[in-house]
Design brief:
Length: 271
């Protein structure tokens, strides 16, 4: 199994966190299982139609997938040899790139070929015909840039400001404080946030806080779990563990012992 993480070109860095490529040419591999965890971001996956079949929670997925925010963990399985490329977007991407209300894709995905019609079908065919990851990345960037130019009216500086505030605070910030900064009613703020990000501001801050705690866990930057809980302003260690299980599907201890992260928030499952 070969895995690569590839940074986006400079002109896409406001939209794409990174590309990833996962390939296996082992004919003896019957299935590889992976776990995704809630990370506050949507994404895109292309799987070569002749190399492997991708399942999520035992449901077969289409060849080119655009997926939204995940509010919990999920399992992916690829049968046979596989040749897959993916994109981890920033949280606002569904609205600013594709012009979609992000909450329409929360905890689900769609076939990009069906959404984009003939244009999406041509993209899938182009990607299937290309052999190198870089050629596929270039093709995807060309397609996405055209989408951005078409949907530039959906860019929302106020929502980007809110996202930046939440990130800097590692999720430990009052939703009321954010709402009052924009001088919006509670209902208007939540509706606008869900349209652009896909979930409520409160849930997004919870996922952001969980992700900040995950980073400390990855870096082993703690002496005991209660240190992570305290650093990220959980009420106590039990609240931290409960949130971890909700978003990762493991306790922190199980995560360290049973999962091997290929990249952040995507682990290969071990027995």
């Amino acid at each position: 199994m070969q895995f690569k993480q590839i940074p986006p070109p400079e002109y896409m860095k406001d939209y794409i966190r990174f590309f990833w490529v996962l390939e296996s040419h082992d004919t003896n591999v019957s299935a590889a299982s992976f776990r995704t965890i809630a990370d506050g971001c949507p994404g895109l996956i292309f799987q070569h139609p002749d190399k492997g079949i991708l399942f999520q929670n035992n449901k077969q997925l289409p060849g080119t997938i655009l997926y939204g925010q995940a509010t919990t963990h999920a399992e992916l399985r690829i049968s046979g040899k596989f040749n897959t490329i993916g994109i981890f977007f920033y949280p606002h991407a569904l609205k600013t790139i594709f012009g979609l209300n992000a909450d329409e894709l929360t905890d689900t995905c769609l076939d990009l070929d069906l959404m984009a019609g003939e244009q999406g079908y041509r993209l899938s065919q182009q990607l299937a015909d290309l052999s190198s990851p870089q050629a596929r990345i270039d093709t995807l960037c060309t397609y996405l840039l055209a989408q951005i130019n078409r949907n530039d009216q959906y860019a929302d500086k106020a929502m980007q400001h809110v996202l930046d505030r939440i990130k800097k605070a590692n999720g430990n910030i009052s939703v009321k404080e954010l709402r009052e900064e924009l001088q919006l009613s509670e209902r208007s703020f939540e509706r606008r946030f869900k349209q652009h990000i896909g979930i409520t501001p409160k849930l997004y801050t919870r996922i952001s806080r969980f992700q900040a705690s995950m980073q400390l866990l990855r870096q082993s930057d703690y002496n005991k779990l209660s240190d992570i809980a305290f650093e990220n302003e959980y009420a106590d260690q039990s609240h931290f563990i409960r949130a971890f299980k909700e978003f990762a599907g493991y306790s922190p201890f199980q995560f360290q012992k049973r999962s091997k992260e290929l990249i952040e928030n995507l682990s290969i499952l071990t027995k």
